[in-house]
């Protein structure tokens, strides 16, 4: 091996030197000692030449290594660029507008010279920036710190975590509750624990992505029934009875993209008949749907019939973060032992816990809030329908304005912003192709005047794009 190349490799590798034969030999310290002794006997001109050659070899070898790494990335980069180009071409590329204010009925958007009405947040109760909620978060920051730097079962459980879990269980009239970093985690962590290959899970075809992913993780027999189709659900239950030990029907309480409500009474009746359990994701119901905000069960007057409720703290209940499962104590205990997202995720930060707890206090003391949301929703749906818009869903504050074309939905949302109303166009893959829409979400923070202004803006933009006449 030429001396410069030998010198380069001797310095590059910390434990061995690489020889021409590809074998490994003495440690680097011995090699360097030998090199120094050899070089010390050479004339100065040759020492300078060796240094120059060694530097050149190092540069060439280093560049070759970078090129090899880049060539592997280049193929992937091309694929990614093609996919992004396809998304842009289809008009479904999503951009993130930046807010420079708190979440509220009106917000400031970066690059916009005036506040705009916000009709696209999950802030259903309008409490995410309530002074008492903010103060509760500040106080918890002082008393309990910014975070726990730990998972729950090591040293990540504080008194306020247990208090919030108990408060959630009481709110839903359940035995116990368990907190997660998000409801996505709660949905990811329950099915694998509860169900085995001897069991069956029956899921609505339009359930949330987190439910779909959670079910994929379990080994149960999987059935998917047509959206809100009780005949199809019964057919699949009938098939599952002879093949399964236990059966779990899984549904969103309210479907977030369509604003329609699961026929929960009928689902519970079928569950009773076929000896099945019922699981409901209440993320778009907890706190504001039903006469006192206790969700889909309360809406149908069947409180207590659902076996498992998963929901979120990241929407109506403060809007910061977090999710939970509430059900019988035995299942909560098992989730604490085996639910992977719970076991391997850090605890919710104390300020988030305190904010959610305060929102529950406010909700219990202000039963008019859910009724206020319902009144605003009814007014919006009535005026929009009268104006000629196609509004999907049931009597729920998620009010999808159906447009069909993805590019039209994006352009329509831009036109609404020019009118001072912030909404977002939803298109594939969030919703099926050909079913793009503007999803309007009503909050208790809105006034009736805000709703009228929003409808007027829809009419103006709708006429511009030929959606209404």
Automatic annotation (TrEMBL):
Its cofactor is pyridoxal 5'-phosphate. It catalyses: glycine + acetyl-CoA = (2S)-2-amino-3-oxobutanoate + CoA. It is an enzyme of class 2 (transferase). SUPFAM superfamilies: PLP-dependent transferases. It holds the Pfam family Aminotran_1_2. InterPro entries: 2am3keto_CoA_ligase (IPR011282), Aminotrans_II_pyridoxalP_BS (IPR001917), Aminotransferase_I/II_large (IPR004839), AON_synthase_class-II (IPR050087), PyrdxlP-dep_Trfase (IPR015424), PyrdxlP-dep_Trfase_major (IPR015421), PyrdxlP-dep_Trfase_small (IPR015422). One of its GO terms (biological process) is L-threonine catabolic process. Transmembrane segments: none annotated. GO terms for cellular component: mitochondrion. One of its GO terms (molecular function) is pyridoxal phosphate binding. Residues 115-458 form the Aminotransferase class I/classII large domain. Keywords: Acyltransferase, Pyridoxal phosphate, Transferase. Its EC number is 2.3.1.29. Belongs to the class-II pyridoxal-phosphate-dependent aminotransferase family. NCBIfam families: 2am3keto_CoA, PRK06939.1. This is 2-amino-3-ketobutyrate coenzyme A ligase, mitochondrial. It comes from Rhipicephalus pulchellus (Yellow backed tick). The lineage of its organism: Eukaryota, Metazoa, Ecdysozoa, Arthropoda, Chelicerata.
């Amino acid at each position: 091996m030429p001396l410069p190349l030998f010198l380069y490799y001797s310095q590059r590798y910390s434990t061995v030197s690489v020889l021409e034969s590809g074998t490994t030999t003495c440690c680097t310290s011995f090699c360097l000692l030998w090199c120094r002794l050899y070089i010390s006997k050479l004339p100065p001109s040759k020492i300078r030449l060796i240094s120059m050659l060694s530097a050149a070899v190092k540069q060439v070898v280093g560049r070759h290594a970078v090129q090899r790494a880049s060539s592997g990335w280049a193929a992937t980069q091309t694929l990614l660029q093609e996919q992004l180009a396809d998304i842009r071409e289809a008009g479904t590329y999503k951009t993130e507008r930046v807010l420079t204010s708190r979440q509220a009925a009106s917000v400031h958007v970066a690059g916009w010279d005036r506040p705009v009405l916000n009709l696209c947040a999950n802030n259903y109760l309008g409490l995410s920036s309530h002074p008492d909620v903010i103060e509760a978060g500040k106080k918890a920051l002082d008393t309990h710190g910014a975070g726990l730097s730990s998972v729950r079962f090591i040293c990540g459980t504080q008194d306020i975590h247990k208090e919030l879990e108990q408060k959630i269980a009481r709110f839903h009239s359940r035995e116990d509750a368990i907190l997660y970093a998000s409801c996505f985690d709660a949905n990811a962590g329950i099915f694998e624990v509860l169900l085995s290959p001897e069991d069956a899970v029956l899921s609505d075809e339009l359930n949330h992505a987190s439910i779909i992913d959670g079910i994929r993780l379990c080994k149960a027999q999987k059935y998917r029934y047509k959206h809100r189709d009780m005949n199809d659900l019964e057919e699949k239950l009938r098939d599952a009875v002879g093949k399964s030990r236990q059966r779990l029907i899984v549904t969103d309480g309210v479907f977030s993209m369509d604003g329609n409500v699961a026929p929960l009474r009928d689902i519970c009746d079928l569950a009773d008949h076929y000896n099945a359990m019922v699981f409901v994701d209440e993320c778009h119901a907890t706190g504001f749907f039903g006469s006192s905000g206790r969700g889909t069960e309360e809406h149908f007057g069947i409180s207590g019939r659902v076996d498992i409720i998963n929901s979120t703290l990241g929407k109506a209940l403060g809007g910061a973060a977090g999710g939970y499962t509430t059900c019988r104590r035995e299942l909560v205990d098992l989730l604490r032992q085996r639910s992977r997202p719970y076991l391997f995720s850090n605890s919710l930060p104390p300020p988030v816990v305190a904010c959610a707890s305060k929102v529950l206090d406010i909700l219990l003391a202000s039963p008019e809030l859910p009724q206020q949301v319902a009144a605003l929703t009814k007014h919006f749906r009535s005026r929009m329908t009268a104006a000629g818009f196609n509004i999907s869903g049931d009597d729920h504050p998620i009010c999808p304005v159906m447009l069909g074309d993805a590019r039209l939905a994006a352009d329509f949302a831009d036109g609404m912003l020019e009118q001072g109303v912030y909404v977002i166009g939803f298109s594939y893959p969030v919703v099926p192709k050909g079913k793009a829409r503007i999803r309007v979400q009503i909050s208790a923070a809105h006034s009736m005047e805000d709703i009228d202004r929003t409808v007027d803006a829809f009419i103006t933009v709708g006429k511009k794009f030929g959606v209404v006449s």
